[in-house]
Sequence to fold (48 residues):
Amino acid sequence: MLDYDYPLYRPPSEGKSLIFQVTLGCSFNKCSYCDMYRTKEYQERPLG
Fold:
């Protein structure tokens, strides 16, 4: 079973797609127009 970290953002057209969440947050996280991941620190998830 896949273990997701929420909130999980994706476009509506991808609503039924399988998501492999290999990173959390945003590596840049400084866009003035986007606040999706402001509260979440960027990290890579282990693949094993």
